[in-house]
Amino acid sequence: MNPIITVEKLSKRYSIGHRLLQDTTFREMLMREASNFTQKLINAARGEQIVQGDEVETFWALRDVSFDVQQGDVLGIIGRNGAGKSTLLKILSRITDPTEGRITLHGRASSLLEVGTGFHPELTGRENIYLNGAILGMRKSEIDARFDSIVDFAEVEKFIDTPVKWYSSGMSVRLAFAVAAHLDPEILIIDEVLAVGDVGFQAKCLNKMGDAARSGRTVLFVSHSMTAVERLCDRVMVLANGEVTGVFDDPREGVRHYIGCGKAMSTIWTNPGNGSGNGYFTPHRLEVDGDGTQNHAITLIVDGTVHQSDPALQIGFYIYDEAEQLVFMSFSSDSLKERWPQLDPGPIHLCVTIPPHWLNEGTYRAELAATLFERQWLLEPGSSAFVKFSVEGGRNASPYWTQRKGVLAPVLEWENRA
User: Fold this and answer.
1) Structural domain for 255, as ranges
2) How many angstroms separate the CA atoms of 185 and 190, rounded?
């Protein structure tokens, strides 16, 4: 069977202009601007990107990306911010051209990449529905047959004859998704825009994508929700620094590869140097140890240096779930008998263990924090380093074990005291 999408050695290069910050004479400035203008003319003649700045840096958003997608596949594309996911979808959607490589698509593709993508702001919701259908090559009678379903799904009946420039971001996403999903394209391309909608609408969208997949349509789905990826996708492709690091037929294998789960869990930093200037504590490395199942404990580890001791110095973790809800927090003083445990100057290797059968299945983020208690933050939550890990289901002695509801899934001791 021939694939419905074939991507061969796809690469995308961008040029980034940098302005030199230095004092110049008026004559030097005129000569520099004349040189920049000449370079822009040359770039335009070559069909290359025109950039501002005295120095131009080349950046490869994608490099030698190759993969196939069969009809009816639901391919999840995951990776960290800047991995190249959105660039890949824009090329597949023909919004931007590749620098190198080739793409072959067999069938109509409908894309939902950004809030309001494909909508004309001056046209009403009704007019944009018909415009998008016409772009996909559909007849008016085909769009008429789906119009009521689109409006009902998007929940914008009251505003369907209002120009979309007056829509909120949530309304725009609801209508854009409804149009993309109901106009029956052979290929449905969805970027991480569902985060704008509310929880109920996100669930409705996921169900609709599942229906599309079961009807034989092909879906490419980019998301940071690992639960959604595991639930919806047949296969998972992982991108890092513009390159494919793996394609997995088992979505859970792909998720584990992405977040570094398993015996070798990777270290993830938002800003490795953050905290070095606070005078008290600098983190060097975060690790998470465990096999990623509910049956075993998970140990969070932080290596760092204490520069000066203070009885109020505490180091800890904030644990968040996929919805960015705080599950719990724990600091170095929790299990110590002293009210103000002393962390002496020098290297530290702190470990904290989350017991087995505590967290429910899902993906979590452990964010490092450091504080001088009731005085000041040294590493405030939201600005420090973090590590991600996933938890898979496990079994205990109970013969009635099933997936449990809630963020936590503790196995508690019961006794009959009658």
Assistant:
1) 5-14+63-259
2) 12
